[in-house]
Design a protein that fits this description.
Keywords: Membrane, Transmembrane, Transmembrane helix
Low-confidence stretches: none
Shape: rod-shaped
Largest sheet: none
Order of helices and strands: H
Protein name: ABC transmembrane type-1 domain-containing protein
Number of strands: 0
Organism: Elysia marginata
Helix content: over 70%
Distance between the termini: 107 Å
Radius of gyration: 31 Å
Strand content: under 5%
Length: about 70
């Protein structure tokens, strides 16, 4: 008889524990995404942009040098 009375209470406790665990996991995942993944991808993009600019500058200087060589040669 006592077991039948305790069963709903145990069920409620189990449901509450499961909900709390799920909420904690979701919060941890969101924090990890916000703190670690998003800044990492933005810095990666920044590095890509810097590398692209650097490549453009190198290409421009190479073209300028080539033009000067052509002008000097002619």
């Amino acid at each position: 008889m006592i077991l039948l009375l305790l069963l709903p209470v145990l069920l409620v406790v189990v449901v509450v524990v499961v909900v709390v665990v799920v909420v904690v996991v979701v919060v941890v995942v969101v924090v990890v995404v916000v703190i670690i993944i998003i800044p990492a991808t933005t810095t990666k993009c920044r590095v890509w942009v810097q590398n692209a600019r650097r490549a453009d500058l190198m290409r421009l200087t190479a073209q300028d040098i080539f033009r000067k060589d052509v002008k000097l040669g002619s």
